[in-house]
Amino acid sequence: MPSKGRNEMNVHETYGKSFRGTAAENYQRYFVPAIAAPVADDLIATAALRTGERVLDVACGTGVVVRLAAERVGASGSVTGLDLNPGMLAVARSATPTDMSIDWQEANAESMPFADHAFDVVLCQMGLQFVPGKLAALREMRRVLTEDGRAIIVVPGPKPPLFAIMIDAIARHIGPEAATFGELVFSMHDVDELRELMRSAGFRDVDARALPKILRLPPPADFLWQYICSTPLSDIVLRTDDAVRTALEQDVCAQWQEFVQDGYLTFEVGMTSATGRK
Ligand SMILES: C[S@@+](CC[C@H](N)C(=O)[O-])C[C@H]1O[C@@H](n2cnc3c(N)ncnc32)[C@H](O)[C@@H]1O
């Protein structure tokens, strides 16, 4: 989840790679094709959207789910993307074809600016774990659904060893804030916890299950810097000097060799997926 604060990034020729732009731009450029888009394909398949449906995507980020949903519901349907972060929404707008009419809303998932019964489907991919008031957000998702509306939530975890290696190394080489972020990203994968939370919010027919996903990522050094520059970790890591970053890269890439297949990082990440009806 890119932070709002950081904007321009330096160019890191040291690593033979150039990272420019905001964390939100790098999220769309690197994180989306490597991770968010393959996960979104599964979410959209589960949602089984129909032509004409009104869809809300909560914590939409740069809009990968929004655009897939808009293709499914067609011109007779509608799609709204809600996110707290204006930087993510700005990239979402610019990444969306001009003939795709999307309602982008900057708002908190815990208090949504929509009337009751406004949507047939609510989606939320890899966002709920960041929301402090999870029950409030789920109650809001239920409130804005029609009487027979449905919600589909996807959250990542448990923390895969590949990410544990990177987070531990950043914490050791640079500072403990990295561990806090790493814990938060994978903090909400417990199937029973998500099922109970959805039931507590009033959803019925709740079905929560673990659906692990195999991801093929870029080669180690590329993915390391792409991930850092797409997330709030950039705030911590990019303020250090070249020697620290070189040591970090060597450490992580050495440990990641066990995940390399044909030059690419390949690993399984847990995904917890839950569906429920109003
Ligand atoms: C990892 S990104 C996921 C974005 C998108 N769903 C995807 O799969 O690419 C998490 C998003 O949650 C958003 N977010 C975090 N807390 C939020 C809140 N309380 N209300 C709305 N959005 C929130 C962040 O701004 C960020 O865009």
TrEMBL record:
Q: InterPro entries under this entry?
A: Methyltransf_11, SAM-dependent_MTases_sf
Looking at the record, the residues that make up the Methyltransferase type domain are 56-153
The record's annotation in Gene3D superfamilies points to: Vaccinia Virus protein VP39
* UniProt GO molecular function: S-adenosylmethionine-dependent methyltransferase activity
Q: Which domain of life is it from?
A: Bacteria
Provide an example Pfam family for this protein: Methyltransf_11
Task: Identify the keywords attached in UniProt to this record, alphabetized.
Answer: Methyltransferase, Transferase
SUPFAM superfamilies attached here?
S-adenosyl-L-methionine-dependent methyltransferases
A biological process (GO) of this protein is: methylation
Is Methyltransferase among the key words of this record?
A: yes
Can you name this protein? Methyltransferase domain-containing protein
Question: Which organism is this protein's natural source?
Answer: Paracoccus methylarcula
